[in-house]
Predict the 3D structure of the following.
Amino acid sequence: MSSLPDAPTPQSQRSKSTPESGPQISNSQSLPTDGSARISGVVQDITEATIAGTQVVLTSKGGSQRRSVTSGPNGEFTFNQVPEGSYVVLITVNGLQPFRSAEIVVSAQQSYQIPKIMLAVASTTSEVTVRPTEEIAAVQIRAEEKQRVLGIVPAFYVSYVPDAAPMTSRQKFSLAAHDTLDWTTYIGVSVTAGIEQANNAYKGYGQGAAGYGKRWAAQFGDGRSSDFLSHAVFASLFHQDPRYFYQGTGTKKSRLYHAVSSAFVARSDSGTTMPNYSYLLGTMTAGALSNAYYPHADRGASLVFTNAGLGVAGRAGQAVIQEFLGKRLTRNVPKSIPPSNGQPALPGDPQP
């Protein structure tokens, strides 16, 4: 992939980046360090990724004196032993808009925490910033990984950006692992296994702790194999996007059709629609694998098709809930719009 200018850096890379140059103040003297006040803060970009190794400059109000520090691994910085007086904090990071704080007035022994510092992507009216597709996808995925219904249930596979960038195979496997091994998974599996135990489902497992353990393992295996096969393995093989793309507009009938059909129709990585091979084959294959660990009396084609049918029905049901209720119940839904320059929208992109 060719090198492209001024792209926002993903969090994993941002923490290692440093600005090409810090704020420059000529003919200045160093601030004395015999005071008792303290000024601190945390440097972040618009996606709330912390920025390490950034030069942060503290100047006196008139700019005649200055001190500088470098932000730590989590973007944190602190100026200790600051004399009483008025100050301004300046931060410059290549590719991001510079930051200048409001006037900070500190007294002796005061500890001042600068409110959230978030550096937006630098923009101009005379040029268009082109970003690598993989980098755009990484930023969008990070935003999706913050989405939780009621602040609890993951909604990582719901995209509120209509023209989201396609994911690479590596990103598909990474998101699948993050989603299917989320802490809520273990609660869901435990509750479902308990219900099966109470109903004596799959009698071949028996009762007691051993029976519950077998049901728990079967439920865990069903979900993890289905998720990885549908969202990562087959999604990569067939170049399909495993996410549900929120419609949000149109008649209720069209939105319902869009949600239900997502179990059978998928978006390809190139943006076209095609049969949802990845999900249909993923659920079928996971159902076939379940024959290896379910009781002998319950094995066979019926188990495969039952598990596959439940998987498809579950996906359609989840899509309907996400389409009509999810956005109102989900925290950290990004505010973004389709851009006019042909580039997929990023959370936090400036709106016209």
About this structure: Residues 1-27, 336-345, 347-352 have pLDDT under 50 and may be disordered.
